[in-house]
Amino acid sequence: MADNPLRLEIIVFFLLTLIFLMWSFKQCSSERDPRERPRIERKKRKNTRQTAQEYSTLYVIVDSLNMRTAPHLDSMIVKRIPRKEAVEFYGLRTSFRQKININSIAKHEPWVYIRMKSGREGWVYAGGLSFYKN
């Protein structure tokens, strides 16, 4: 009878260790390679060219924000957007977040699809945007 409490402790320890290992493997596998083809959350929107009320105005808060053809650092740069430039955000963003250092600050943000006042569209890193003109 004296062995039963010890045996129970060993079984509980084993189960907790197994649960922790399963959780940690799931966390490691959820980190995606940003070069993988991203899943993009698409929100329903009407024709954005006609309705001006369905977008948010955001402002570039870094010296130069790169607009790209796809939401990752390896894609081609389409345009460099200067600081304080206003852009239109329609709610289209990636389902993943990426860690990027901006102005020596580590950010963990998604990529967003924006349109400039000139009509040019592309992907930018959300860590370089703000609702306020800084």
Which properties best describe this structure?
134 residues, alpha+beta, SH3 type barrels, six-stranded antiparallel beta sheet, 10 strands
Explain this structure.
The mean pLDDT is 80. The chain has 2 domains: 1-31; 40-130, Roll (SH3 type barrels). The strands form 3 sheets. Strands 1, 2, 5, 8, 9 and 10 form a 6-stranded antiparallel sheet that branches. A two-stranded antiparallel ribbon has the order 3-4. Helix content is 21%, strand content 37%. The protein has one helix at 3-30; strands spanning 40-41, 56-60, 64-68, 77-82, 86-94, 98-102, 105-109, 111-116, 121-125, 129-130. The radius of gyration is 22 Å and the shape is elongated. It starts with a helix and ends with a strand. With 134 residues, the protein is α+β, with helices and mostly antiparallel strands. The chain has 1 helix and 10 strands.
- The strand count comes to 10
Radius of gyration: 22 Å
What is the mean pLDDT?
80
Assign the CATH topology of the largest domain.
Answer: SH3 type barrels
Task: Using the coordinates above, name the CATH class of the largest domain.
Answer: Mainly Beta
What would you give as the CATH superfamily of the largest domain?
A: SH3 Domains
Helix/strand/pairing category: alpha+beta
The outline comes out as elongated
Order of helices and strands: HEEEEEEEEEE
- Number of helical regions: 1
Low-confidence stretches: none
Ends distance = 71 Å
Tally the structural domains: 2
| CATH 2nd-level architecture of the largest domain | Roll
| Oligomeric status | single chain
- Level of helix content? 10-25%
- How much of the residues is beta strand, in percent? 35-45%
> How many strands, what sense, and barrel or not for the largest sheet?
6 strands, antiparallel
